[in-house]
From TrEMBL:
Domain Glutaredoxin: 13-75
UniProt main location, coarse: cytoplasm
SUPFAM superfamilies: Thioredoxin-like
Organism: Eutrema salsugineum
Keywords assigned by UniProt, alphabetized: Cytoplasm, Redox-active center
Cellular location(s): Cytoplasm
Stored InterPro entries: GlrX-like_pln_2, Glutaredoxin, Thioredoxin-like_sf
Name this polypeptide is given: Glutaredoxin domain-containing protein
Amino acid sequence: MDRVMRMSSEKRVVIFSKSSCCLSYAVQVLFQDLGVNPKIHEIDKDPECREIEKALLRLGCSKPVPAVFIGGKLVGSTNEVMSMHLSSSLVPLVKPYLC
């Protein structure tokens, strides 16, 4: 879990993803469309993929990917991010981190 916490703080917006996950891709595109350049960790390309998935679940993710961290804090997965975007609460959260 320590590694995941370090990785989640590498940049102001961090997304844990899998290269084959369409929901991860949709979340990445949303942030890019908002002008945010997130750090993407494609965990399926990491030899410790299973450990990272387990750590993300222990941190409270409903599914291991996509997992979005803003300012080092877990925001959630696709449902939480999209709900925040639709309720206009995502942009103010990422505004300080715009490119």
